[in-house]
Amino acid sequence: MKEEIIPFESDGLRLVGVLRYPDEREGKIPGVLLVHGSLEDDRDGNGLGHPDGRMVYKTNFFLEISRHLCSAGFATFSWDRRGFGESEGLRGDTLSAVQDAKAALDVLYSEENTINPDRIAVAGQSAGVFTICLLAEDDDRARAYILQGGLYSDYSDMMAFNYLRVKEYAEKSLENLLWVEKNDLWGLVVGIHLPLLEKSAKEGEVECDITYKGRSWKVQLDPLSYKQEYAPSKQFKYIQKPALLVHGACDLNVPVEDVYMIEKELSANGNNDFELVVIPGVDHSFQEVAEDEETRLRERMSLESFKRPYKLEFFNVLIEYLERRL
After folding, report:
1. Over the stretch 33-50, which tens digit does the pLDDT of each residue have?
2. Model pTM greater than 0.90?
3. What value does the mean pLDDT take over residues 195-209?
4. For the domain that residue 61 is a member of, what is the CATH number?
5. pLDDT confidence band for 79 (50 / 70 / 90)
6. Looking at the structure, do residues 125 and 150 belong to the same domain, yes or no?
7. Cα diameter, the chain
8. How many beta carbons lie within 10 A of that of residue 213, not counting itself?
9. pLDDT of 1-24, one tens digit each?
10. Is the dihedral of CA 45, 82, 93, 131 positive or negative?
11. What's the Cα-to-Cα distance from 170 to each of 114, 160, 184, rounded to whole Å?
């Protein structure tokens, strides 16, 4: 796999991405744009910081996808999110993410010596699914879309799914509480303050102060996330090209039920050219999970789940789909 570092501009900011493609190729090849979710900050698909200061294990999610796709003859382009790696600015909101994805897609289409412009797909991971839906509203150049771990439920439901379980687990016993305070204090504190955070965001606040046992945090909010016109369920109507829906059966970030609701929504809006794959035994990032539910939950809270290997089936699903559709 070869790598070419490419700076580009979005909203007056200098962002930096990487084009990856096979060592050996004949002519122009198909390309895939990799769009960040909330857990991917850099071009390699790593989270580079946690709100409570914990170390986040490097998973190299996009790098691993690129290695597999390049070995199958595809190119990929990914970039450092605003404020991370070599990219300028501060981490942006929902609309700036769409703007940056559009600028990154322009880069992929501009690589005329490497990429076949008629064979480009856009892949969004988690919140990146929301991003590419909004991107598709005004830019339909992509030939196909890949929706990985996409959210259909409202943002408030997603927050409750992720953080109420931490609070509820801590409330089961003193032993659980002490464990959670040590391993996922942030999740506990957010779970306790969910009503306040939602109320503040709906009132247009962009940050909110929360406290727990003498400690305080300033939580960044995105009021747009709670506006009904930007509800995830309302954005899938913009996906009117072939699409692959892929979800982990043991996803603890976005319920697996959401992918079936996305399936129905696409069909209801006239797009029946899609395929759905639920991969057993993997989480939100398509990493393998423990067999028992409590271990899965504790590893999710402690971030130990990021140490687990990716399941090869996920990469094979992507390759097999792209070989047929690009």
Report:
1. 999 998 999 999 999 777
2. yes
3. 95
4. 3.40.50.1820
5. very high
6. yes
7. 63
8. 7
9. 999 999 999 999 999 999 999 999
10. negative
11. 53, 15, 10
Tokens of 225: 């996330």
Final residue of a domain: which of 175, 202, 225? Answer: 225
Q: Do residues 269 and 125 both lie within one domain?
A: yes
Across the range 116-132, mean pLDDT stands at 97
Q: Which amino acid is located at 253 in the chain?
A: N
Tell me: do 89 and 135 sit in the same domain.
Answer: yes
180/178 Cα distance (integer angstroms): 6
At residue 295, φ and ψ (nearest 5 deg) are -65, -40
Q: What distance, in Å, lies between the first and last C-alpha atoms of the chain?
A: 20
What is the domain count for the chain? 2
Question: Both 185 and 122 in a single domain?
Answer: no
Q: Could you tell me the residue range of the domain that residue 176 belongs to?
A: 156-225
Is 141 found in the same domain as 261? Answer: yes
Crossing angle of helices 155-170/174-183, nearest 10°?
130
Same domain, yes or no: 71 and 216: no
Is the domain of 101 the same as that of 249?
Answer: yes
DSSP symbols for 196-228 = HHHHHHHTT-SEEEEEETTEEEEEE--GGGG-G
